[in-house]
Write a structure and sequence with these properties.
Length: about 150
């Protein structure tokens, strides 16, 4: 995390999807039928450099986690899809809170990045998904509005 010295709080912050990059990956780990399957999940979220827009902070967050799928539940392609959708989503929620907490302790207002989902593009979108942002994933209208609101306080 780094506070941008050029940020002008008197002007509207230029926080939008185009300034945030999200990359994620999921790979299976060694597993067995008795204990279930294990998956390594990785996520990277990055805000573009300070000089590209009137933004309060620049940041780079990388997280990794392990998802354990217990036996007796989903299997095969359904399990793989569930892990690829939900694994990065769990890390994204944690990263989103880390960014909010860290930037909230800085000289400018806290940054709350918009929420997203990790559904593959081939799946039909749910009724609440209305657009695709630069995060590379569909985003809800609610998340898009929240990204533009000024923080309270």
């Amino acid at each position: 995390m780094e506070a941008c010295p050029e940020y002008d709080p008197a002007k509207e912050p230029e926080l939008d999807f185009e300034s945030i990059t999200v990359k994620h990956g999921v790979k299976p780990l060694q597993s067995n039928a008795e204990e279930g399957s294990r998956w390594m999940v990785g996520l990277m979220i990055e805000q573009t450099p300070c000089d590209s827009a009137n933004i309060p902070y620049t940041f780079h967050v990388s997280l990794q986690g392990i998802v354990l799928a217990l036996p007796g539940g989903l299997s095969g392609e359904k399990l793989e899809l569930a892990v690829k959708v939900n694994g990065p989503a769990m890390l994204f929620g944690a990263a989103r809170e880390m960014i909010r907490a860290a930037t909230g302790r800085g000289p400018h207002q806290a940054v709350i990045i918009p929420s997203t989902n990790f559904l593959p593009p081939a799946l039909p979108p749910s009724a609440s998904v209305v657009t695709e942002g630069a995060l590379g994933q569909p985003v809800t209208k609610v998340a898009k509005k929240a990204a533009r609101k000024k923080p309270r306080g």
